[in-house]
Amino acid sequence: MTPSPGRRRLPPAERREEILKAATELIAASGFKGVTLEAFAAACGMTKAGLLHHFRSREELLIAVLERRDELDLTSVVDTLEPAPDPATARAVMSGFVRRNLVQRSLVQLYTVLSAEALDPAHPAHAYFRTRLREGRAMIERYLLAWHPRPGQAAVELLAFLDGLQLNWLRDAGIDFLAQWETFADRFFTA
Amino acid sequence: MTPSPGRRRLPPAERREEILKAATELIAASGFKGVTLEAFAAACGMTKAGLLHHFRSREELLIAVLERRDELDLTSVVDTLEPAPDPATARAVMSGFVRRNLVQRSLVQLYTVLSAEALDPAHPAHAYFRTRLREGRAMIERYLLAWHPRPGQAAVELLAFLDGLQLNWLRDAGIDFLAQWETFADRFFTA
DNA sequence: CACGCTATCTACCAAACGGTAGATAAACTA
DNA sequence: TAGTTTATCTACCGTTTGGTAGATAGCGTG
Q1: Per-residue pLDDT tens over the stretch B96-129
Q2: What is the pTM of this model?
Q3: Exposure winner among A115, B55, B153, B182, fewest CB in 10 A?
């Protein structure tokens, strides 16, 4: 892509960002186990050694990718999600969340692919996903608390449906994510 | 585990079955990419070369594992699933299916882990899951056809929820799979 | 322009990988 | 018991892997 000027020197912050972005898409496509250090580097037009100047190991790169997604994604929700109103409001907020997630397909895919891969307790991101998903569920549970009779169970159901829909949507792009969500929400947000 | 009689010679059919069973659990735990040929062999107390006498390559072993699951699982459903009755019957049949799946935890996990890993088009099981899931959806769609206003959409929703619930159940064994299913079904099977 | 800093590269390493070739030993048959 | 078959093993090969050491070159500052 770049007109190959032999060696491209970038300020560290810029290069790091470039690497993280490329790594995100590679991991989203093939999982973490499926991408070699060399592949990560080549995607930015550099060598393994060059990349390792910015991230001390392949595993550290993975962690940086995950933390970056946290910054990009969680911040856009966390402030909106403190109150605990009625079903209609809850649905509107969740719909906004779904819509926002939908446009960042590569991030959705990263999250889905990696969280499945990380079911293995030996996976470097295992602990990360354990705590993160637990927190997410607790957050939604608190959010539904004011009006839902069984907020805990409902939170599990909601997240399960969204996870599964994302998975199936990645398998088959023909699925109309939003329409499926709205249909589900019609039933779910009904006291 | 076995009192290590140096060399254990088994009739091919028996050995194949032993290997497939062990491989199923290893893949379920760590994905296909996460298990080496040596690990597959060691799990049966033999060497790589010994294993390769029964399966010509690591990839062929994977395919055999998948086909074995087909035999074990699909046959128990396919005969029951031809007719297309009312919501109550549909729910009962699906509940039976869910219950049957639930007791075979390692198979559920194999399927979930592997189907996520196989989102990558370069994965050796990619094609397998594409066709298999498409068929599964079509089957359920036909099954809901008689009474559901939107059988296609409903099939997607049903499978998405089940996939997602399985995923979350594997992450957190504290989830009450059956209770979650029944709650979902209460809303889903309502004309 | 000369110098220092450091981002990047080339070259290399030890370990692990999937797979092969040929030797060995366990079970069946005559 | 001797011979045949073949399941399994030991030993090895070529490749790929994550990572390291030291050389090189792009950039800012004097």
Answers
A1: 989 988 998 889 999 999 999 999 999 999 999 9
A2: 0.92
A3: B182
And the tokens for B165?
């619930």
Q: Which nucleotide is nearest to B37 (CA to C1')?
A: C18
**Average pLDDT value for residue range B28-39:** 98
What are A95-98's contacts with CB under 8 Å, separation 24+? A95/A181, A95/A182, A95/A185, A98/A162, A98/A177, A98/A178, A98/A181
Helices and strands in chain A: count of H runs, count of E runs: 9, 0
Give the span between the Cα atoms of B37 and B51, in whole angstroms.
8
Interface test with B, best of A156, A172, A175 (most B CBs within 10 A): A156
Report the residue of chain A nearest B129, measured CA to CA. A171
Give A54-106 pLDDT, tens digit per residue: 999 999 999 999 999 877 665 566 556 666 678 998 999 899 989 988 998 88
Closest-approach nucleotide to residue A40, Cα vs C1': D18
